[in-house]
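User:
I study polymers; will you set down one protein's sequence and backbone structure tokens?

Assistant:
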Amino acid sequence: MLDISPRTKIDTALAKLERALASGDIEATVNLFQADCYWRDLVTFTWNLKTLEGHEQVRDMLGSQLAATRPSTFVQDTREAASEAGGVTEGWFEFETGVARGYGHIRLKDGLIWTLLTTMTELKGHEEPKGFRRPMGAEHGHDRNRKTWKEKRETEAAELGYTTQPYVVIIGGGQGGIALGARLRQLGVPTIIIEKNERPGDSWRKRYKSLCLHDPVWYDHLPYIPFPENWPVFTPKDKVGDWLEMYTRVMELNYWGSTTAKSAQYDETTGEWTVVVERDGKEVVLKPKQLVMATGMSGKANVPKFEGQDIFKGEQQHSSQHPGPDAYAGKKVVVIGSNNSAHDICAALWEAGADVTMLQRSSTHIVKSDSLMDIGLGDLYSERAVQGGMTTRKADLIFASLPYRIMHEFQIPIYNKIREQDAEFYRALEKAGFMLDFGDDDSGLFMKYLRRGSGYYIDVGACDLVIDGSIKLKSGVDISHLTENAVVLKDGTELPADLIVYATGYGSMNGWAADLISREVADKVGKCWGLGSDTTKDPGPWEGEQRNMWKPTQQEALWFHGGNLHQSRHYSQYLALQLKARQAGIEIAVYGLSKPHHLS
């Protein structure tokens, strides 16, 4: 029997796919896929972020999009080795559409396509000025009217938003707004970033002083400028802030700090937003064609209501407002919550000499940082991965190639291994009374993050303080009311307090849209984030992608961008290309625009 190499299998599958698509034969294309197939498309075919599941959905998408997409030239990327394991053959490929170039990943079972990833890399005729297209910088020759780079930048900064209008306004100048602004800058899309804080990075600087990135450096690079090789694995918040400030200057972003967005209104007739902002004490009216809410992955701070909050004589803060532990040495503090912020704040308060109690009202997923770095992220985002030839782009695409519908199946073995390795640690936590979970289906941290954006802590030391009682723990009971100097629980327990910290999370991003635009528009869009997995805090119906993130919404010309540094980096590419295509006047037909979802 002839032994066919993985590369040959991929070549054969791609050739069949190209022939079927080029001939417009939808049935022939569908028959190249397994019955339980998944096709994840990032912009190229759907002008959307969309995962198609099964023959019927693939057939429907192609019936709508194939003629206009004009895909061609599916060629295996010979720089990457095709591989085979467990009956699955996988490889990488390049391809084109009528208006774009793309890159993809394919997995085969029994010669048929099991998973397919197609992503847009660049728009033809609108390529980024890099490599052989990079700008000269210097202008050789002579010209009495020439302007220096500095003069050009000063002119642009003085005119944009006043005598000339941006095509895009981004509300929010944190990591998300900055990453997207950098992408749009390279695509030649005039953009202004609006940020209420004075300096880029202040959204990090102003958090509690012990805050540090829990994700490792390899996971956190920004577009175009990776962190240096000697950058720490876990970046302290003020160092992140300084990096973002440097990045904003070096990438020549039009960043309006100390600026407040007051209102926004869309004119369906002109296809234009009117965005009123306050800058330098004066109102400025901006008229962009596209508006991006880049306020993180979360909305407004969620502060629960309890009887007696108005009579409590101590301080009450949401975790986002907590200044740090210095003023609370010797004080009694109750931290309500048991996720990342709660643990970080409790540990810092203990170090400062506070008497701190963590109130855990529902179970929490815990994973030790070292275990997550090694077992959960090590193959893609680690020095080991880099030394093995892994690049950030390839790691991002491997992660993107796993359809959300089946991603938990890949995560469960990882967390089973972690549970086995750290069994003693977990037993000690439970003995201390801590309520543990590993997600509704034991799939761990990443699925919890994607489904609900909460419910976990990456342990960098606080758990030892819970285990030994240094951080007091009260779990499994909710709050009855507050008195002048205590938190009273429903079982009658009184927790004396000088300070209450509400580490109780955030609402949906569309809450910011309600404030800035209108409740009507916020409801038209619906909730942001979540997959519709019908698990805790992520009710159905199944969406298959993050709701309303990085893709068209029910409100024309309104977009949402956010997430962690990895997502800000990766998905900013696809959002920027969608915005550039509209600026360039490319004909766009969005497939599968999501219906609004209003459950929290």
Observations:
- The chain has three domains: 6-123, 151-299+507-584, 315-502.
- Residues 190 and 231 are 32 Å apart (CA to CA).
- The first helix runs from residue 6 to 22.
- The longest strand covers residues 112-123.
